[in-house]
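Hey L., structure's done. Input below.
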Amino acid sequence: MAYDTIRCERRDDVLVITLDRPDRLNAWTPHMSEEQADAIEAANTDPAVGAIVMTGAGRGFCAGADMEETFQTRIDGTDPGADTAGGSGGMPAAIDWVGLVRTSKPMVAAVNGAAVGIGLTMILPFDYIVASDRAKLGMLFVKVGLVPELASTHFLVQRMGFGRASELCLSGRVIGADEAVASALVDRVVDHDVVVDEAVGVAQAMAANPDPQLRMIKQLLTENATATDLTAVQERESELLRECWRTPEHAEAVRAFIEKRPPSFERR
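Output:
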């Protein structure tokens, strides 16, 4: 698939997806989400790719949805693209964004500037968020007469806690990188000039591990993070643990330990 709103490049075993509408601060459109989803799905079936980084071109990460191409188009009586009315959170109907991210190879965000509205909610389900010291983040939905989407009212509370998540959503306030990392909205803040390099480094550390087990761990974190039935939590873990015992990746790791050498995992 040829892309016109994103671009992709490989850095060793990490795919870097760059939102590429810098003249509009990478404002999101349904078409962009189709290209993002296609690139993620392609990476997930490519054995040469172990993890994915997403960043933005130019001064911003993503300044939310494109007002004219999404909201005004819908107000004028036309769906902005690919049946967003039938989809989840304004996404095209064919895209389950949260499901895609949580079942994907490891995903790391490199927030290089403004990340507001869907520019923030799209990355909340990611496995790790690295932010530039120039980043600005906000849940601006209430400011435009909307409510948050993409399970962000779940992930935001998981990351920040109930009070901080409530204040951010109900005020529509934009916060800087220092407050974002102090409140655990992002996981690391680094100098602006190295934000993508840092994110790639995090992704490479994840990609060095066996892919089936990475996916299993993501599944367990997704299903168990807020579970209260500890018996069910352990049952899910035990089911996947028994599956791991039968995998070539587990056997190779044990052999490598006994032979005092680094393991060599074949990516699927």
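The radius of gyration is 19 Å. The longest strand covers residues 6-11.

-- N.
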